[in-house]
Amino acid sequence: MSLIRRLSALGALGLFGLAAVTPVSVAAQAFPTKPIRLVVPYTAGGSSDFVARQIAQRMGEALGQPITVENKPGVAGIPGTEVVAKSAPDGYTLALIGMTTHAANPWLYKKLPYDPIKDFTPISAAITSPLVLVVNPEVPAKNVQELIAYAKANPGKVHYGSAGVGNTLHLAGEYFRSRTGIDVVHVPYKGASAALNDLLGGRIQMMIDLVQTPLAHIQAGKLRALGTTGTERLAILPDVPTIAEQGLPGFQFATSIGVAAPAGTPKAVVDQLHAAMIKALANPELQAAFAKQGMQVTPSASPEAYAKHIAAEREKIGELVKRAGIEPE
Questions:
Q1: Which residues pair with 254 in a beta bridge?
Q2: Domain 34-128+255-324's class?
């Protein structure tokens, strides 16, 4: 073979090899070239939807493409989460995920249509939302230690409400019970609002809930806030100490919300999405909006760090489910 023909052949092979790898790399470099959708597995107007819309607006600005929020509600967030798990791994379909979809559901359901670990590539956590322990004013307790003493003096007579068996509020109550050793009775309701109404009416005595739900009643003096479940006091309730401050060191229980892409999404795309989330979460207006809802901005240092956080939360919730004797459906 002549030198010219050899060079031509090598050139052709080089072009063939370049063609084989270029589409993926070019696609990653060009991302995004069209709008992105963020699937929220809950109804519009709720706290998760609020978080999603705040993030979507500012992530879209950072990426130069709009991010539309698509609500796909269903039992325990399963239908909407499944949609993303089965979507193309190209970065154009994202999921709003949290404690329910990725930490609790694997323990509460025998068969899920998605695998929270294998079917997703975590991008970053967005917010952490500590809960607040509230009691009816008829309960003679002004702080957590007094509540513990009262409950121990009245075993089985203190009832706490939740939004249903296996719900985040139920698991928070079980965590509090496991840390304090008190004998309290769980009363499940079909939603937090129904439980809150019975708490206000004195039919149950205590509840651990998202801050937004009882906040107006706390401020009006209709409910007494004894402690919050985060690692630091909330700006929205600065005079309410954390439960950890009140003789239970290390006590922490909070819901978290983040964003994930389908498994197999190119790392370059995931890194771009992570960078856009970090930029969005640094926005002062966004942080102020979250603070008014009792939420704390908690971005992940990396997608890998967020994956580790999800795995740790899953194990923690699994222990609580077992202690509570909850049988998977």
A1: 130
A2: alpha beta
Each residue of 89-145: pLDDT tens digit? 999 999 999 999 999 999 999 999 999 999 999 999 999 999 999 999 999 999 999
At residue 129's C-alpha, the angle toward residues 267 and 201, to 5°, is 150
Nearest C-alpha neighbor of 296 from the set 251, 208, 224, 237: 237
**pLDDT < 70: residue spans in the chain:** 1-29
Name the nearest CA neighbour of 102 among 81, 124, 86: 81
| Torsion angle in degrees (nearest 10) through CA of 228, 230, 235, 240 | 30
Cα-based angle 242, 218, 241 (whole degrees, multiple of 5): 15
Looking at residue 174, its amino acid is E
What's the DSSP call for residue 117?
A: T
Cβ(309)–Cβ(300) below 8 Å = yes
Per-residue DSSP letter, 119: T
State the CATH class of domain 130-246.
Answer: alpha beta
Instruction: Tokens 């009363």: give the residue.
Output: 187
Token digits of residue 135: 């009691």
Predicted structure pTM score: 0.84
Tokens of 46: 């709720």
Domain ranges of the chain: 34-128+255-324, 130-246
